[in-house]
Specification:
single chain, alpha/beta, D-Maltodextrin-Binding Protein, domain 2, 2 domains, 9 helices, 11 strands, globular, disordered N terminus
Amino acid sequence: MPQRPAILRATLLLVTLAAPLASLAAGKCEQLVATGNPEYPPYLWRDPVHPERLIGANADLLEQVGKSIGVNIRVLYTGSWARAQEEARLGRVDLLAGAFLTPERLESMDYIHPAFLTTQAVVWVRKDAQFPYASRDDLKGLKGGTLVNNSFGQDFDAFAEQQLTLEEVPSLTQAFQKLMLKRSDYVLYEHYPGLAVADTLGLADDLQPLEPSVSSEGLYLTLAHNSACNDPWLRGQLAKKMTELSAAGVPQHLLQDNLARWKAQQLQPAGTSTQ
């Protein structure tokens, strides 16, 4: 009997300690910050009305994921694609809203499986300066352009490093401009975003993607190792919701919606929004 108060006190202490632990298990962060490639329509691009934000299919998907797990996810513009990756590596942002799987990124990021979309990277050329092209070997001896820290999958990245001459530039706009100025022979970039940016620059009739594609890679959501919010509960919830949404075809529907959104936005005066 004398031990009962001690037992009671111990029980109360455990209950008191369990409350914050349960709160932590439900996710210690109520808000996450994501970023990504700002020249990636219809997947991601800067909101013309609120240029501090990124919008697009990937941003819409993250919004749905966040709502389903009770976490507010903001997708913000942090600079070029290379800069966005550096911000994630340093833990200044929590998530990358779409990245290919590479050994280098695995050193600083957890990949949330499954991939939510698949993209094809292609060879972009001037229509008046095409060259015989049937495989990536036909790029040898030519001068190409790509973005700083861009990836086209482990296999092609290794081939490019050993066999190709590629100049890295900060933006696709700059890469396409160099191509038009004949300072490069081709540009490597994804198909849909390349079409969108070429159209924006008024180059849709001057540039052409070649077939076959050089790679087909999955786009993943990644969680920075240095994010203060990176814990087992969050990783598990993100993977669970991404699996559910992908199985339901949600990413593909969002991609089609944002293709239409991007095209409609290009027809509007500057400073207006389709939202």
